Amino acid sequence: MSSILLELTTRSASGTTASKALRRLGHIPATLYGHGEKALNVAVDVKLVTELLRTGADHHLIEIMLNGKARETAFVRSVQRDPITGRVQHVDILRVSSNESIRASIPLTLTGTAPGVKNSGGILEFTVHQLEISGPAASLPESLEVDISALEIREHVTAAQVKLPSGFALVTSPETIIVAVETPRVSTVADEVAPVAAAAPAA
Which of 163, 175, 178, 81 is CA-nearest to residue 129? Predict the structure, then answer.
């Protein structure tokens, strides 16, 4: 569990104007829901959210405190960012107890060196960087390792081949290709001359 405590305060105003005013004060609008309770519009300090995301703690159980009352455990369900600046605009927070089973997207890390790249000049294409899994909230892994040490050219690793911790199940489609070693495209003189010849005007 993250050591960061998110202190939340309820907010009555909502909408674009209210959200912009909230951000100017150094807070981010958020929604707190779960455990059958009514969804609440809340605010949280932008610095705390930034630190939470920086440390990767958004993939694990966190502690929250609503209006200075008792602490609860929760999980950051989604984060909305500005498409241009990348700044966090809104956060959805789900109340979760440590013994609950939840679905979460866990980052993937590559281990080993693909011989298809090292020895044959292949191109490594790492296209899927997270896997969605389900299991006990208190045991969510920080990341999942993808071993590429046996990958030759035109070989790949699928989601089904990624080893999961005990008690967890794969939610992502098993056939999803995570990483592959592709054949490098070799440029030839003919490739370079053809477009020039096609563009030349007829005599």
Answer: 178
pLDDT in tens, 173-191: 999 999 999 998 765 554 5
First CA to last CA distance, the chain: 74
Quick check: helix, strand or coil at residue 31? strand
User: What domains sit in the chain, N to C, each tagged with a CATH number?
Assistant: 5-97 (2.40.240.10), 103-182 (2.170.120.20)
Please give the structure tokens belonging to residue 47. Answer: 């610095």
- Residue keyed to tokens 């949280």: 44
Where do the H-state alpha helices sit in 11-143?
Answer: 16-24, 46-54, 115-118
Q: Answer yes or no: is pLDDT of 199 > 80.
A: no
Q: What is the pLDDT of residues 10-68, one digit of tens each?
A: 987 777 788 888 888 889 999 999 888 889 999 999 998 888 888 776 677 889 999 99
DSSP 20: H
Closest CA to 181 of 131, 119, 132: 119
State if pTM tops 0.70.
yes
Quick check: helix, strand or coil at residue 22?
Answer: helix
From residue 18, alpha-carbon distances to 84, 88, 136, 149 in Å are 21, 16, 37, 52
